[in-house]
Design goal:
The complex is a heterodimer of chains A (about 110) and B (about 240). Chain A is mainly α. Chain A is about 75% helix and about 0% strand. Chain A has a domain of about 80 residues. Chain A starts with a helix and ends with a helix. In chain B, about 50% of the residues are buried. In chain B, helix 1 packs across helix 9 and helix 8 runs antiparallel to helix 9. The chains are: A mainly alpha (about 110), B mainly alpha (about 240). Chains A and B meet through helix 1, helix 2, helix 3, helix 4 and helix 5 of A and helix 2, helix 3, helix 4, helix 5 and helix 6 of B.
Chain lengths: ~110, ~240
């Protein structure tokens, strides 16, 4: 890394302000004016529209393995989703996924 | 003991939010620690690393910024990549308007600062389930969700920076974040429209993975939202 201290603080400051403005955008500027029903319908899908797309590349090409498909991480992801759909419970899904991840890693260390 | 009516009205939802936020310590703590470790490794000072976690307070974009900085990208590209990753939060901001738009400005400023994946997802799920909540109760619930998460986010960044390179890579802390996000989303996939949106999000994001950080995700999210809304309308039309 070849940035000066001032440059790094500039990055942090602009990123902080910019991120805040993104988060504040609609909530701050548009307020409680009524929104069209199609927009509301669209927005209800934001979590299932954003998060799977954010995670999918990390599952298929994990940065930790330099992008090579990793059977352990893939299994952990599948177990997490399966348990999440089955139990409808975030915590159980996390526990199941983490146990799969560390269980499988422990097994490969032993074998 | 004197308790104002406002306080009694909002303390129950605040603590309900606090309880619902607790499990996400499991996510924030390792994620923040990993950020601290990588930040130290990349050459940031303790103050700079903490500056990221306090001022930006958005995991994925902090990682994106670090990655670009490690590659010595120009400052403009560092900012573009990190801000693109955060654009999804404009959608969160918009999605909160029907629930929190009527709150006083200072509360909306605070909500905006604390509007990250976990607080947003948990809060909107609650608002949808309980339409009878007042605006003050919703704000209190939102702050409740953030309360246990934020100190761990900031504190564990510091722990990670101090622990630095002592943490072995074999811990696979990197994959805790995907597991957390998957665990949050899976229970929300509750209709054909949600399944369709999820599939579009995944396939478009994978297809566009070569685009600059965050860009593919943004296109994937837009396409997935549109798909979800259209499939939902089509299903409603069939039911009539």
């Amino acid at each position: 890394m070849t940035y000066s201290d001032a440059q790094i603080w500039t990055i942090i400051a602009i990123l902080g302000v910019g991120t805040f403005l993104i988060r504040f955008s609609f909530l701050g500027l548009i307020g409680d004016r009524p929104m069209p029903s199609f927009v509301l319908r669209l927005l209800r899908f934001t979590p299932v529209a954003v998060l799977p797309g954010m995670v999918a590349p990390l599952v298929v090409w994990p940065p930790a393995t330099s992008g090579a498909l990793d059977p352990i991480r893939l299994c952990a992801a599948i177990v997490t989703v399966a348990v999440g759909i089955w139990t409808r419970n975030v915590l159980w899904a996390i526990v199941a996924g983490a146990l799969t991840l560390y269980g499988a890693m422990g097994l490969t260390l032993l074998l | 003991m004197t308790t104002s009516t406002v306080k009694t009205q909002t303390s129950a939802p605040y603590w309900a939010g606090f309880r619902d936020g607790l499990p996400f310590i499991l996510m924030a703590a390792p994620f923040a620690m990993v950020f601290g470790v990588i930040a130290t490794d990349a050459g940031l000072t303790l103050a700079q690393g903490m500056g990221f976690s306090v001022l930006v307070i958005a995991g994925a974009s902090q990682f994106a910024a670090l990655q670009m900085m490690i590659e010595n990208a120009s400052i403009a590209f560092v900012l573009l990549a990190a801000l693109a990753v955060n654009l999804r939060m404009a959608m969160y901001s918009a999605a909160l308007v029907p629930y929190l738009g009527a709150a006083p400005l200072w509360k909306r400023v605070l909500v905006a600062y604390l509007n990250f994946d976990q607080t947003y997802i948990v809060s909107v799920a609650r608002y949808e389930k309980r339409p009878e909540m007042s605006v003050a109760e919703r704000v209190a619930y939102f702050f409740g969700v953030a309360t246990p998460i934020v100190p761990f986010w900031v504190g564990m960044t510091m722990v990670g920076m101090l622990a630095g390179a002592a943490i072995p890579e074999a811990w696979a802390l990197d994959f805790i974040m995907p597991i957390m996000f998957l665990a949050m989303v899976a229970p929300m996939v509750k209709s054909l429209a949600h399944v369709a949106a999820t599939c579009v999000s995944i396939s478009v994001a994978l297809a566009l993975v070569g685009l600059p950080s965050g860009t593919g995700l943004l296109i994937a999210a837009g396409a997935a939202m549109l798909t979800g809304a259209l499939v939902e309308m089509w299903m409603e039309g069939r039911r009539k």
